[in-house]
Amino acid sequence: MQLLKDMIVTKGRVDSEHILKVDGFLNHQIDVQFLNEIGKEFKERFKDQPVTKILTIEASGIAVACMVAQYFEVPVIFAKKTESKNLDAATYESQVYSFTKDRYYKIRVSKRYLGSEDKVLIIDDFLANGQAVLGLKEIVDQAGAELVGVGIVIEKGFQQGGKLVRDQGIRVESLAIIESMKPGEVVFRP
Amino acid sequence: MQLLKDMIVTKGRVDSEHILKVDGFLNHQIDVQFLNEIGKEFKERFKDQPVTKILTIEASGIAVACMVAQYFEVPVIFAKKTESKNLDAATYESQVYSFTKDRYYKIRVSKRYLGSEDKVLIIDDFLANGQAVLGLKEIVDQAGAELVGVGIVIEKGFQQGGKLVRDQGIRVESLAIIESMKPGEVVFRP
User: Which amino acids does the record list as binding 5-phospho-alpha-D-ribose 1-diphosphate (chains A, B) (predicted)?
Assistant: First the structure.
């Protein structure tokens, strides 16, 4: 998606070979007009799928998922990372390993909002090591729902997540795949 | 806002005199069509204000803030609760006291995205004890920006937050104010 690549080049900042900051438009300050274009693009790519729910994970996935959901006219569910007294006791749960924090954390979705009749599209801002997506997939499996695809805004193609998820037979659509990067330079996969 | 009151009565669940669960449409599963109506209502109420940024706090404020921002055509910024290597070192910070967890937590906004030229509208899903809104106000003050108002979806009128915030001269617009509640009954302030 050319608009996204342009945003990454003009407004993103590469701080090292692993850190791409897109906090000016995607995950701290959020450009909602831009996210509407992202929403249209995912709708175009998954228009063949009878999506009933969009699933994401707090916190930075929520904005993208909500803007995308407008084009599918379905609800968003975001998996919670923290214990909350506002969450039902009956939940689907999975463990997600965080490489950056070197620990596992639990994600939860209330059983009330996901069931065997659902066709689920997972949406997230980044795909790097793939652990969050695989954790969300496990929740979809527990619900007996069908995972129809995964929509990612920015995939770090130099990390193993994309391969891990696609090797499970899951359809992944990434709007930009970064092959390599260093300060001042981002190389996209054609 | 009648539509919101109807949603609370038909889809909300009162688990005790303090816990109102609206996780079916507002803060776990998100009804984006409904949030669009919320967005229009806030735009109508604050149409006299030259808003340049919408400020909220992760996680459950993000969805509301993004949907509202579409009607103001301005960016959203969400304050982060957790340390993140994706956040700039230069941040505005404030301490927020959590009554439910009985501890202080820090919230942060990058200095890059808020400045003295900004007119800020704070948006959040709930107003209860008011600590989150006051923490966000402190960040607006640190930036030298102007706080033009606070838009709240559901205010718990039986807690002190609304009074605390309004006593500081801040304009608060709550789309539904709950006077009292118990299982099976929600009484709204007229």
Answer: 128-132
Structurally, what CATH architecture does the domain formed by A2-84+91-188 represent? Answer: 3-Layer(aba) Sandwich (3.40)
Interface A-B: count of C-beta contacts within 8 A: 117
pLDDT digits 0-9 by tens, B94-139: 999 988 788 999 999 999 999 999 999 999 999 999 999 999 999 9
Per-domain boundaries in chain B:
2-84+92-186
Per the CB < 8 A criterion, the answer to whether A53 and A74 are in contact is: yes
Distance from CA of A65 to the nearest CA of B (A): 9
CA distance B91 to chain A (A): 12
* Beta bridge mates, B110: B91
Structure tokens at B70: 């579409």
Buried residues in A49-76 as b, exposed as e (16+ CB within 10 A): eebbbbbbbbbbbbbbbbbbbbbbebbb
Q: What is the pLDDT of residue B100?
A: 78
State yes or no: pLDDT of A78 exceeds 90.
yes
Instruction: Return the pLDDT at A86.
Output: 66
Phi and psi, residue B13, nearest 5°: -135, 125
- The model's confidence at residue A141, banded by pLDDT at 50, 70 and 90, is very high
pLDDT recorded at residue A85? 66
Compute the distance between CA of residue A114 and CA of residue B18 in angstroms, rounded to an integer.
26
**Architecture of the domain defined by B2-84+92-186:** 3-Layer(aba) Sandwich (3.40)
Whether residue A88 has pLDDT greater than 90: no
Chain B residue numbers with beta carbons less than 8 Å from the beta carbon of A62 are 30, 59, 62-63, 66
pLDDT digits (tens, 9 = 90+) for B129-162: 999 999 999 999 999 999 999 999 999 999 999 9
Question: pLDDT value at position B149?
Answer: 98
Q: Helices A32-45 & B61-72, crossing angle to 10 degrees?
A: 100
Give the integer Cα–Cα distance in Å for B175 and B28.
Answer: 19
Q: Which stretches of chain A are assigned E, i.e. beta strand?
A: 13-14, 20-21, 29-30, 53-57, 76-79, 91-98, 103-110, 119-127, 146-156, 172-182, 185-188
CB-facing half-sphere around the CA of A16: CA atoms within 13 A: 4
